[in-house]
Amino acid sequence: MKVAIVGVSGAVGQEFLRVLAERNFPMDELLLFGSARSAGRVYEYCGKQIAVKELKHNDDFKGVDIAFTSAGAGTSKEFAETITKYGAIMIDNSSAFRMDHDIPLVVPEVNAEDAKNRPRGIIANPNCTTIQMVVALKPIEKLSHIKRIHVATYQAASGAGAAAMDELKEQYNQIARGEEPTVEKFAYQLAYNLIPQVDVFTENGYTKEEMKMFNETRKIMHSDVEVSALCVRVPALRAHSEAIWVETERPVSVEEAHSAFEKAEGVVVVDKPEHKEYPMPLFVATKDPVYVGRIRKDISNPNGLTFWCVGDQIKKGAALNAVQIAEYLIKEKAL
Ligand SMILES: NC(=O)c1ccc[n+]([C@@H]2O[C@H](COP(=O)([O-])OP(=O)(O)OC[C@H]3O[C@@H](n4cnc5c(N)ncnc54)[C@H](OP(=O)(O)O)[C@@H]3O)[C@@H](O)[C@H]2O)c1
Predict the structure, then answer these.
(1) Shortest-distance Cα residue to atom 11 of ligand 1
(2) Which of 19, 110, 229, 295 can bridge 213 by disulfide, Cβ–Cβ 3.0-4.6 Å?
């Protein structure tokens, strides 16, 4: 088994190194790629020093079985042919191919089987906010079809990459020193602030991130569900949070939902409001599961249920989900 990581210096790339080691992913060789900026840099993987190669249009992917790519949509589009031409499966974290009809968009807890049908040798890893939401929705969908979702997200700085996380930390330091904070990665200062915009606006007034939640949820769940999202960047470092309202075909009780969440793959329930216990990004960062809490009936809708959901978007929302797809393919002998 020969594995490659493309974009290893980034927030998601670094998480791939940790997740692959943590899960003892079966492999004989690991290749690391980046742009000219990080080429030559050395990273350690399970005691081995591995130098980053510059990603080029050559034969470097000959013999590679799985390539985990997280270097942005432009890079994925430009290099997909180079990466897959000798048979490597490309599991791509960018938005480049997610909505293409011949590219499966996979969250193993929800639609693992879709990963087997990949005519172009590419499997897309969904948008991070969508991944954690569909993991939590799956057990409810099993109880009763979800017709409509309203969701407000509270997205951590690291969702915009390693440099954005550094900028948030630096802003707090600069403000403490009485200096003007550097604002480069987001449109506004994020420290002591919230920004109700993630990604660019589309014609209907929703941002691209919000439309990803609409379109990707439908594709992953094979569903006609309507999703109305409002995505907000918050000064958390890592792990996205979501307030979710679902409307099901028949009323679902809190007890039913609680028990379905408890049994669901990849979900952990933290819901003891009387003890002030609910999921929070500070405590969910670096954890594998998606956490849910504050499970209640929606008092404005007899068929409505509402809950709070927190997941580490670099881990389950990116690297871990991709590695779980690869593990599924290995288990199913479907590489
Ligand atoms: N951060 C998240 O929470 C998250 C979650 C899900 C999906 N994603 C997606 O994952 C991808 C990476 O995100 P990130 O947050 O890890 O960003 P990041 O921290 O900014 O890292 C970007 C990575 O891409 C590499 N890269 C850029 N241009 C390249 C090129 N031409 N050739 C080879 N490598 C190139 C960079 O390498 P150099 O350092 O060498 O330039 C770096 O390793 C994006 O598509 C993003 O949308 C991110």
Answers:
(1) 70
(2) 229
Mutate which of 19, 35, 313 to test ligand 1's pocket (most atoms within 8 Å of Cβ)?
35
Rounded CA-CA distance 298/306 in Å is: 6
CB of 70 within 6 A of ligand 1: the answer is yes
Residues 6 or more apart from 81 whose CB is under 8 A from it? none
11 C-alpha to ligand 1 centroid (Å):
7
- Asked if residue 135 lies in contact with residue 266, where contact means CB atoms within 8 angstroms, the answer is yes
Pairing of strands 66-69, 42-45: unpaired
Based on the residue annotation, tell me whether 240 is a catalytic residue of this protein.
Answer: yes
**205-218 pLDDT, tens per residue?**
999 999 999 999 99
Q: Whose CA is nearest to atom 44 of ligand 1?
A: 72
121 touches ligand 1 (CB under 6 Å): no
Token pair recorded at residue 172:
């707090």
From CA 240, how far away is CA 160, in angstroms rounded? 12
Q: How far apart are CA 81 and CA 69, in angstroms?
A: 13
Catalytic residue among 150, 231, 240, 309: 240
Q: Is 251 exposed, middle or buried (0-12, 13-18, 19+ CB in 10 A)?
A: middle
Other beta carbons within 10 angstroms of residue 96's beta carbon come to: 21
256-295 pLDDT per residue, tens? 999 999 999 999 999 999 999 999 999 999 999 999 999 9
Digit-coded pLDDT (tens) for 171-191: 999 999 999 999 999 999 999
Does the beta carbon of 126 sit less than 6 angstroms from any atom of ligand 1? no
For the four alpha carbons of 173, 176, 181 and 187, in that order, the dihedral sign comes to positive
pTM for the full model? 0.98
